[in-house]
Write a structure and sequence with these properties.
Elements (H helix, E strand, L loop, with lengths): L2 H27 L4 H12 L8 H8 L3 H13 L3 E5 L7 E5 L1 H24 L5
Antiparallel strand pairs: 1-2
Length: 127
Amino acid sequence: MTQGDYTALLQFRTVLRHFLHWSEEQARTVGVPPGQHQLLLAVKGHDDPAGPTIGQVAEYLAVRHHSAVESVDRAERAGHVQRVRDADDHRVIRLRLTTSGEDLIRLLSVEHLAELAMLGSLFSAPG
């Protein structure tokens, strides 16, 4: 390990922490708790159009199943997500965004992608 390696790791961790703090503030600015923002992204970013299960959301958020259930309950009460029975297996419950949830995640994601593009330029090698 060189001093440059440590410096690069410090820079990355510092930028990452600042991004996460900035992200939480962006969510609060539009009236969404940061955890709900992450839940909305987990639902929207899931690659199966049927929507993720709560277990899959728990994996994305790195939380226990019961914590994901509580987050889904809060988001559902806020009108951002809905539970839907799986079309093929009625024992399975999937999550989908409501129109309100779609609007919020779109608004937040545009800002986040712009911020990530700017931060990515900090790590680009000089041309």
